[in-house]
Amino acid sequence: MEAAGKEEISVEDEAVDKNIFKDCSKIAFYRRQKQLSRRATYQASLDSATIGKDSTKFQIISETTKVSLLAEVYGIEGNIFRLKINEETPLKPRYEVPDVLTSKPSTVRLISCSGDADSLVLTDGKGDLKCNITANPFKIDLVSQEEVVMSINSLGQLYFEHLQIPLKQRAAKENKEDTSVDASQEDQEDLGLWEEKFGKFVDVKVNGPASVGLDFSLHGFEHLYGIPQHAESHQLKNTSDGDAYRLYNLDVYGYKIHDKMGIYGSVPYLLAHKLGRTLGIFWLNASETLVEINTEPAVKYTLTQMGPVAAKQKVRCRTDVHWMSESGIIDVFLLTGPTPSDVFKQYSYLTGTQAMPPLFSLGYHQCRWNYEDEQDIKEVDAGFDEHDIPYDVMWLDIEHTEGKRYFTWDKKRFPNPKRMQELLRSKNRKLVVISDPHIKIDPNYSVYVKAKEQGFFVRNHEGGDFEGVCWPGLSSYLDFTNPKVREWYSGLFTFSAYQGSTDILYIWNDMNEPSVFRGPELTMQKNAIHHGNWEHRELHNIYGFYQQMATAEGLIQRSKGKERPFVLTRSFFAGSQKYGAVWTGDNTAEWSYLKISIPMLLTLSITGISFCGADVGGFIGNPEAELLVRWYQAGAYQPFFRGHATMNTKRREPWLFGEEYTRLIREAIRQRYTLLPYWYSLFYRAHVAAQPVMRPLWIEFPEELDAFGVEDEYMLGSALLVHPVTEPKASTVDVFLPGSNEVWYDCKTFAHWEGARTVKIPVALDTIPVFQRGGSIVPIKTTVGKSTGYMTDSPYGLRVALSTKDSAMGEFYLDDGHSFRYLHQKQFLHRKFSFLSDVLINSCADERGHYPSKCVVEQIFVLGLKKQPSSVTTRSSDGKDEPVAFTYCAQMSTLRLEKLSLNISADWEVHVR
Ligand code: NOJ
């Protein structure tokens, strides 16, 4: 690694020590909310509520401080409620998170259907939902079908610190009484009102205490999910005192697993699920946030006590969720479902859907910190071809630059970057290079000079440019919250500005929490100043989001709006899905990290971020061959599929572990490429309909209690169940196959089982336990090429798995794989397949799209066909029938049709008689 100035910059030295990071006891606003919240009861003045077209407004007043808050309740299209609480007359405006909502949400007029001075009942007059507001003490109940599903502030944890004039100034004004925090508290250092110490760091708070908090009780719910990013289980756990889930974006090298500490990104959004209903709570706040969760023990009803509802749920329980944020306002969206898919749509209505990825980015990515030079790249690239392993993208980490000056190339290592890209292009492959948000302070570095001249860096509280240490040594940090900075930064990706770049070069944004090596908790001081004079504390969690936004925009602009970007980011926020992919950062080459990658990715997926992955092999350390193979097998079935390794680890390209392991890795990667049509179709569903690509079982089986806690397996779309092997020397895995009306087929052996059972599956080192759900049709490619680009014209196959009712359905999406023509010119193909009464039909799923393809379906494989057909014929759209040869296996109940030539974009039928 290159030395930065005199000192070597090493993340290992800086980050591995967990004491660098705070636990709850070291967070002053947490301590305050825990100690002080009980003292204030709020009362709503409902008699003076104003019910307007957009919202209903009323005051809530703290009995202790007498300072009033303004509450606004909005009804939003699609069964969403929004509650905003702010100071009625703050000393200065409080931060409201901009740029996350895709547009101003359309409101629906709420009408009051009953009420008096003590209560107010609002409804949108359409559905069955009611918002029941109680005045004293202030509380809101969300009621559906006469049953309270959620209560807000029923535990009285509404907490709102009013902006105040500092004590000294207040004393001078002799106006002590009307302050919300009494003066005796002022001297209590542990409350950290105006100053907070952490190790050698002192956070001076010019605005004083400004935290907010509120509780939500979810009735009948005990399964909660979401609020990434934590290296934790998919189902959220109850938090004990001092152990809240923390949302604070931090660079944690080799993060500990099963821990609630904040890591690289934050989505302040959780989902709750019970039989019959899914709910979402989206807490739109970008400052440091803590979430406490507490499930009240379930009460069992005896049979005689059971009414119809209780009978259905058997167990009544309640989970309380307590959100606390360091600053900003309370702005919370209640997504009322009722189904998981409704909640996904509601959340995507607010924050957008997954960007449609370019097809290449669903292939395999090869990364390492670092590939040394052009020759190294050439050899690794050739290695894939020699070993007949497909891959799409080569990656260059920070060492490719001139001294970590992004947008430059190290002239010795990469003297001719265009030549290198041409080599990759000749194989239909791409290059991704890194671009971090810190900019080396160097008067000879044009990016630095231009940003400096224009005042584009985050400032320190004294008004100068903020300076912190990162890879290049002393650096300043671009203020991506400023739209002008984003516009300028986007411009840096034009081919003329970015010397040596070509249109096959894409971008990786790293260290954008932002990571500041000698800063508090390895990040930026909270009193650094951003555009609009906002303190960093207000918007910390959204910094990385803005960098990815600007980068994606830059890549779109360089193509004059034609091409889809690919940008991977480490840090993220709610809505980051619109800009590209996310990965889980610096994991370790240990089995436990392979295992936890599944729940971590499931959590990202259900919070909108479908395009996610974990470093295959584990970033830190050297995986043994078996672990590496298992990781490739798991990664092949996870959305973003990239092998990556840190410096000083042994090289681990797929062919370095002996022929047997090469074969196993090749096979895993080839399975990925075989399934690309299915992956691409799933991403289209995520893009247009907000359905996650990788799905926890509870989403597909929302009525099956046994599925709610499963996180060692998951559904890929609605057709495939994947249970990666994550234990060493495994000879069997226990696979839970959900659904009493389902039938599941082992994709390798074609053995089948009825659902609602756990089966013990024997596994060898080449087994990837994947099961196709009866009733589904999965499109595949029948031949695999060097990269996705080689496979454009290659034939398709259909894997039809029959349900217990001998039917199946599936869909297929195709476009040019790289441009926006699918969107602007409707150049896409969307087909649906159905198998019913022994006839397989290919028909159009969306008449708006046109993308004629010459590709054929050459192979159809039917699983679960119980009787041997006497003939199989194809029928084209002009009604012509032709017999086709087939192979039927009575033992496995499979039918195989080969050497077909059925155009994928045309209507046709296959009759099995
Ligand atoms: C930290 C990232 O998490 C890692 O993937 C990368 O290799 C290093 N930074 C160096 O850029």
Automatic annotation (TrEMBL):
InterPro entries: Gal_mutarotase_sf_dom, GH, Glyco_hydro_31_AS, Glyco_hydro_31_C, Glyco_hydro_31_N_dom, Glyco_hydro_31_TIM, Glyco_hydro_b. Belongs to the glycosyl hydrolase 31 family. Signal peptide: none annotated. Residues 355-682 form the Glycoside hydrolase family 31 TIM barrel domain. GO terms for molecular function: alpha-1,4-glucosidase activity; carbohydrate binding. Keywords: Glycosidase, Hydrolase. Residues 691-778 form the Glycosyl hydrolase family 31 C-terminal domain. Residues 72-291 form the Glycoside hydrolase family 31 N-terminal domain. Gene3D superfamilies: Glycosidases, glycosyl hydrolase (family 31), Golgi alpha-mannosidase II. This is Neutral alpha-glucosidase C isoform X1. PROSITE patterns: GLYCOSYL_HYDROL_F31_1. The keyword Hydrolase applies. One of its GO terms (biological process) is carbohydrate metabolic process. It comes from Zalophus californianus. It holds the Pfam family Gal_mutarotas_2. The gene is GANC.
